[in-house]
Amino acid sequence: MAFTLSKDTLRNQISSILNCVVVLSAVASISFVSAALELNEQATGLSSQEQIDVVLNGKFTQGALLRGQAPVGAKVTLNGEPVQTNKDGKFVVGFEREAQLQQTLAVELDNGKKWQRDITLEKREYNIQRIDGLEQKMVTPPAEVTARIKQDNINVANARSGNTDLDALFTRFEWPAKGAITGVYGSQRILNGVPKWPHYGLDIANETGTPVYAPVDGVVTMADDLYYSGNTLILDHGMRVFSTFLHMDTITVEVGDTVKQGEQIGTIGSTGRSTGPHLDWRINLGNIRLDPHTIMSGSPEQ
């Protein structure tokens, strides 16, 4: 993006947002913003002719997914570890539920010039949810289903193992269903008095049969009935980012299908370990479980 602004004007415009993130653009690709130039100069001390354009979109908080763009061919690292970039310089980073609050994102060009941003994540407090009245076999599964659960876990891992160059995830995500949010990411569930793993999804409750839509373009990598999560669908959005939809009543797409944003992929249900009809929507960056709410605005009730 080409524009001309004085340094003083730039500083005034971004002084109130230096510790915030850039609001996600509604257009299909990430756009550079004025904040990028000022952040570059502060981080590196480079002159205006040497500045490195880097954009970041997302929330600086535990559980967040950040989408970014650096110059084509640049090397991107997070805390010294390499971050995948695509042919356009786009990249994705994620921060797990209990991620360290201090993070360092760096970009280095072929000529040795560097950009660095020290990020301080917001520490989150998570809810504790108690759910009683479940069948005991769904809290502590009987021995005869142990093999099935193990195979389910292997199948899910395989469905999330891809690393394609799709970049639909750089568009604005839409809510996959209408309803009320009844469960949030990071909360720990105590089932029939037994503490379990934290909940890594966002629950949207509505009547059985309520349509579920693709929040953004993707390729179906799983459409199966699993012991815990019932009818489960996984979409590959590219660059190791996956959406998973649990407890569905019906799934209307098949493995290998390419779906477009807004295309119906099934309906809300209460299959698997569930106490009522709802959609449990999850986001993964590889093995990192992230909070779908960090890439959304508004409410699914709208």
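Next protein, fold it too.
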Amino acid sequence: MPLRLAVGKKHVFTDWSFVEPGYGVSWSGAPQPSMMPNGVKIVTFRPTLQPEPVVVSEKPWEDHFINGYATFFEDEGRMRLYYEAFAEYGSGDFSARLCYAESEDGIHWVRPELDILPFGDEHGAHVHKDPTAPPDERYRMVHSGNDEKGAFVAGAVSPDGIHWTPIEEPLLRWASDTQTVVFRDEACGHYKGYFRGWPQGNLWHGRRTVDHAVSDDFRSWPDPSFCMVTDANDPPGTDIYTNGVTPWPGAQDAYLAFPCFYPRTADTMETHLWVSRDGAVWHRPSREPLLGSGTPETNHFAGVVAGQGIIQTAPGEWSMLVQPKVLTHNETHYEGGWWNKGGLWRATIREDGFMAVEADGRGELWTLPFTLEGNRLELNAWTHFGGEIRVGLIVEGEDTPAGFGVEDCDGVSGNALWTSLTWRGNRDLSALRGKTVRLHWEITRGRLYAFRMAQC
């Protein structure tokens, strides 16, 4: 059965899963290569850490410290930000406070006067909007908790994202003492949860991991299991401290994670990139940090911790909110270690720009067969001077209508953000709608970040 690429949903290149592997020597017919990708590779790119903060300590309840545990998302034309802060130093209250800010552009944030007292210690909180939930529970929160029985994951619900009602019973008895992430996955219709693991058995003994669970009910969760762990190529004293999981915006089957690695020897924090097709099986496309530690004179000498979410801050620009760290993980616990009040900065990257298929010279690949929906093909791509990207359509089991081959494609050069492909000036693919097709991509000195089918 052919695959399906839904109209408006992007295919991004976290791996080769949608690419035909081909054969060096075909099993039948002429003994020659068959649809074998060549001259292409998948590459990763790092975001740029912007020099100025977007959120700094201004209020008494955040005077002690603003943590990197933050959630940010677009909600009906405005950006919402939920972040963790601690009260004035010396107050004797070291409870984490869930704070709120909003923005029209994701860069300039305001703190509305809410006149609401917090309901407790909301350490490691994460907020998501669930459009399928009842109106009085449209916004849902998880955070860490403790009682006489030990640690647990707590929950709360809200009709507006401002006024919260705690859920009386723990959602899960689990010591997730970092930013837990829970969201409803529209692709599969259930909730995905990502929790801290700290196993004490033979497997990764004492090393922090990222654990994963799935539930049909926000209020009830099974015990999580490993989904991100360190391996033999990591130094032995390395933990995965946070997870930062988010669905890849606009993609059909892709998830991003920005876990913070904690190398105990250096005592620093460094954000890495992990990707997944289903949210359960993850891989690390690069072993280099996405946002690493800097030199001693920088504001991120001790590393960078990422919050959860991606927001669009300009056409073609995505932003993450992160916390650069001047002081190392354990340095903050010594006298005077909290002088750095923290805050949030932006790390920016091209839309879909974390990964791409790239050809240094000339390369080509074929997709797997899929049912063509929509009537035009759009791409997000970039080429060097003299570079070009072309694509041809191959109809499975029949002759392709004339005019849609690679040789007919007008090609795209330079910076292309959701540019429609044309064949001899024609972009209308209605004649092929409903047919099983492959895309034959030719890339010369360029990068293909993503493509999608669209409807005029």
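About the second fold: Residues 235 and 277 are 27 Å apart (CA to CA).
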